Structures are given as structure tokens and as C-alpha cells.
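hey team, just a heads up i'm posting the complex here instead of the shared drive bc the drive is being weird again. everything in one block, sequence lines first with there labels, then the predicted structure for the whole assembly after. its four chains so it's a bit long, scroll down
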Amino acid sequence: MSRQRKQAGSRTTIRDVAAKSGVSVATVSRVLAGNYPTSEDAKKKVLAAIDELNYVMNAHARGLAGQGTRTIAILVEQVTSPFYAAVAQGVEEQAAAGGRLCLICTTHGDPAQELALVNMLRDQGTDAVIIVGGITPSREYEIRMARYAESLNAVGSVLVLCGRPRLDADVPHLVVAYENEEGAYAATNYILSKGHEDVIFVGGVEGISTTDDRVRGFRRAMQERGLPTEGRVLLGSHREAFGRTAVQERLARGRDFTAIVAYNDHIAAGALLAVRQAGLRVPEDVSVIGYDDSLLASNLTPALTSVAVPAQELGRTAVRRALEHQDGDVRDPSQVVTLATHVVVRDSVARPRA
Amino acid sequence: MSRQRKQAGSRTTIRDVAAKSGVSVATVSRVLAGNYPTSEDAKKKVLAAIDELNYVMNAHARGLAGQGTRTIAILVEQVTSPFYAAVAQGVEEQAAAGGRLCLICTTHGDPAQELALVNMLRDQGTDAVIIVGGITPSREYEIRMARYAESLNAVGSVLVLCGRPRLDADVPHLVVAYENEEGAYAATNYILSKGHEDVIFVGGVEGISTTDDRVRGFRRAMQERGLPTEGRVLLGSHREAFGRTAVQERLARGRDFTAIVAYNDHIAAGALLAVRQAGLRVPEDVSVIGYDDSLLASNLTPALTSVAVPAQELGRTAVRRALEHQDGDVRDPSQVVTLATHVVVRDSVARPRA
DNA sequence: AGAGAAGCAGTAATCGGTTACTACGTTGAT
DNA sequence: ATCAACGTAGTAACCGATTACTGCTTCTCT
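-- predicted structure starts here --
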């Protein structure tokens, strides 16, 4: 209500620019868009007037007239996680490269909030909605998300899922994934190649796709060598605190492992703490491998060996595909692009003793 | 270009809803806005039609017609910094509480980009533009930013500066700060209270307000005890790498200090590395104190004593004040709200030996 | 020199909401 | 019965950009 407009100066419009430079509004618009032949003379005059009047285009007017919003939205659980921050960074960069603004929204891991945001974003006319992170699959969720994907498409927008499986429904959407199962498989194999046989997997939330995938990779590597995984997968959360308590409790029951494959670097950090608290050393007594290769990994003591996920690249790829798709030149939209992960070797893994 | 509209179904507009429910577009708009008396009957019919047609309002049309966007923008250097991420988190939470979306933009520390973004954001109809982080003051920048602040106000939007001094110009804008000088003063005093006398300050960028403030706090604490600060302030960047090399070089020239006050936790992490590389121990040989109390601090070895900055609270306060201001009930807009910082004691500071 | 093409600029319709203004029907007071 | 007041609904003029369509030059080719 306190919003008063049309005061004294009001707003500088394309018409003011046209008047000042002595050309028509159409010409001004064309100079701005640059998609129509315009004489050098007119161009110069318009640019001068724009500069002098300090004119900025009204995004709403442009959006309304059919140019799209030129924004891209990204939905993450929380921005304070280094992994999501890095993905967001990638999205932001690529969006900027494509002349788009980047809208970052947080869902706090709540599927309902996620749906509400997608719904809202669609109204805003975002060019693309990128959802990052694993999800607990549920029938109802799938159905509603498919409806939204459909309506996003209806308004010329694109839904991109990052690090999460395709929707079941036959609705156009893009998927950019990174190796979860493969990464955990590689991490476990790296540990096993050092001679470990008693390995546990710690962290992650049961039922969330990312967790399930990593656990699967762990199991596969173990089973290929005929090692047991029964009772060796400790799920709970992806927070550092869980890593600490889970390992503490396990150690209290007796040390029946020589290596830990952590769900992520936070868990690994917690595990490190618990191991040290128990008077054991890393990697001499217990080896630990993390996941994500976040900022944390290189700063822990010992520096953490971790699976590097190309987080920024993930964000960039998501945007790139979304924009390509908007322009209609994605070969196969239903194809899942999967980015590779690799083990970054530091100091937290060694051969087991004896 | 590939954006084809007016296809088959086209877009469901308020007119479709009006037609379906047998009322006028004005009535539909009023039901949606809820700011005009409408009969229960009409309301019910409109709502039913909206539901049935799966109608969503076009944000551009609404924005163009002068209703504001209900979004809040935050400008930070980069989202991957834990500090900025935490502020952004706070902004996002409070914005959501106020029914606003949160637009996060990155400036990469470039004042020109910052200005360009503010300029652009104003026309998006953002309710508030929050700029976080210190800045190199420059006359030209001040003038342009003041102009933008003015034009933001003209369209009913608010400019909020976070952790940066007020604009010189007499232009309405809000400032939420946190103690920089006081924090560094407290950190230094904490170190001094342990008996240290040879202390150096490492990190930060010359000329940026945040750095200058922290250095001032350091100097004040030292001078109050009659200790020299000449040649004891090492500026360069706020990255970990700088912390490492700066301390390495200093140590190479001889160990003339027993404690380090770091510009932030990243610098502290680098310093820790350099100290250890030189065969010295923390805190036995050298004490280190950080700033920001980021995630990093508690995970370093030894756990880093650091100055806690209420980053999330900073974001929340910024949004709260902005929305209050829009509603016209901020008592004194020119008042700078300053949030307190405090030293979080961990294991990286000890008495100097002998 | 005249016809046709090409290059550039202008007019005005349009996007989808909001809202000032007008109009209508009902109620209540005189 | 008449008129004022009130509550509700409708008409149409905006908001500021885009762009189809039209028209005027200028240039080229015969």
C-alpha cells in the first residue's frame, strides 16, 4: 500500500528514450534486442540516450511481451552445505553466461515444500527449474511432480533433476546425474585394494536414492571379493554428529573393522573424531574415505581421501542442458547424462596393520 | 525463438477464468487479491473455475500492473563461502516467513557487477535488495550506489547493506552490521590475556572495509598494551592459500611471533598448515585464532578458537528490517543495527612457552 | 530513367493482470 | 414513494516492452 508510483520523475521507459533520441520505440527496442538491422546512427543515438537517462528495461514488461523471464531456479535442501553451494555456484555461473539470473530456493528436504516451490516458480515464468539432491520416492510425490513437470512444459519452462532418478511418468524433463553407486564402488575398491577386509559403511538416510545408490556400490564391491556386508551398513543421517555417534557406539561394542567408507565428508569428519577419541589413529589403525571431496576434506587432519563429485560441473551441465532444451536442440531429452566421479587420494587411507 | 506461444491451449488467463465462472475479469482479479469486497457466491465460483482450469497467475502481468514481485534479493561475493551461505540461509528463511521468494546473486566481488545487478533487480520489482560483505570504498561507486538506492526507493523497494558502512549520501537505506573491529579487538585481547606479546595479523584485502575494521581492532588491542603492530599486519587475500604462504614466508625469515590473529577461518586453516609444515605445533608453539566460526573451525586439528559471527541472524535481521521498512514501521531507518560477535574457545590458543 | 529489391523506421496491436470509474440493485430512512 | 447510501460488479484504460505489418528511402539492374 505504501507503494506510490508515478511520482515526480516516475520511471524511465523506452518511450522516454525514444523521445530523447528522436527515434521510435520500436527502434529503441530493436537496438536493445539487437535482433533486427538498425543503422549505426540510430544505434549510437539510442545508446547515448539510454546512458544519459540511466534507463533500465522493465523485466516484467519484457516478460509479458513474450521474452521469458530470463531466470533459472535451483532448489536445494540447504545452501549451507558445501556440496549444494558448489552446485548452486555452477548453476549461477552458467546462468549468468546465458544472460539469466539465478534464483536459489531451499526446501529443507521437505517434499511438500519442494512441490509448493515448483508450483510457485512456474507462475514466475522461470526458464528452468533445477532440483538437486536425492529424494525418498513416493507414489503420490511422483504423480504430483509429474503434473508440475507437465505444466512447466506448458509454459515453455524446463524441469531438470540433478542426482535423482527420472520420473516414472512419461513427462518431458531432463536428468543430470553423477555416479553414486560407481563412486562408492570405487571408494570401497580403493580401500579393499589396500588389503582391508573388515569395512563398514556409515551415514546416509535409508530410502533416499543417493544413499541407496552408495550403499549398493559398497555392497557390490564387498561381495565381489566375497566379503560380508551384513550388519556393516550404518544408516541414520548425513550429519557429522551421526558419523561420530555411530562410530563411537560401534567401537564401544568392540573394534571389528579396519576401514570406514563414509556416506559423505561430514560423516567422515565425525568418524575421524570418534576414532581419535577412542585412542586410535587414522590411518594407522583405521582408514577412512569420504564422499564429495568438499572443502572439509583437505582441511581435516589427516587430509581426507574422498570421492570427488563434480558439483559445479553438475550445476553447469544442468543449466546448459536446460537452455539447449528450450532452444529445442537436445538430441535425446530422455537420456540421463551422468557425470563421472573419482577418488582423490590424500592421507586417511593406509594398509591395515599386521 | 523456439518459444511458441498461442498454441492449441495457449495459456489460461484471468479471462478464461472469468468466462468459465460467469463473472468479469475484475472480479476474478479481486478474488485473487482479496483486497476488495466480493460476494461469497462469486468467490466460490471463481475459485472453482481456477481449480478446474488449473490456472496460475502470470507474475509478469501482475508485476507490470504494479503489484511488486514478492521477492527479496541478496547479493554476495560467492555462495560457496560458508559465511555467505549462512547469511543467505538466514535471508531465505526470513523471506519465506514473509511469503517472499529469495533471489541469490553473486557478484564475484566486482563493484561494477554489483551495481549492474542492483540496477537490474530494481526493475524486477524486488521488495528488497540486500548486499552483503565489505567493499572498497570509492567515490564513484558511492555516488552510483546512492543513485540506485534512490531509485529503489522510488519504486517502493528497500536497499539493505550488511556488514558494510552506511552510504555517505543522504539516501534512505538500511544497514545491518556485525562487530568487526570489536570482534578482532576481543580476539586479540583473548590472545594477549594468555600472555602473548608477539602477535601478527594475517589475511584480508587492503582497503576493504571489513579488513580495515578488523585490523583496527587488532591494532587497538595491541596498542593498549603498548605492543608494536608495525610490520605485523600481513594483508593479501582472504583465501586459505594466502594464509599458508604468508605464514610460510614469515617463518622463513625467522620466528618472531607466538600467536596469529587470522582474518578468517580459511586463513587460519592455511596458517595451521604452514606452522605444522615448519615442524611447529599448534597451540604449543604458535597459537592461532580465526574469525567467522565457520564449519571449518570445529573440524580443523586442533579445533580452532574463532570469533563467532551470527551470520544467519544477520540475514534474518536484514530481511526483517527491510519488510518493516516497507510497511513504514521502522523507527529510525538511519540507525545502524549492529549484531554482537563473541569468541568461541576451542583448542588452538594456549599460553606461550617460557 | 523506371522497376524492383533491399534496408531501415514507425504505427499500433498485443501480452495478462490491476484498478479508477461507472453503474446497478438493494436496503433503510424520510 | 423517493432518495441516499451502500455493497458489489463491469468496462476500459493503463503498466512497458515486443513485433507484425506497412511505408518510405536508397540502391541496383536493365
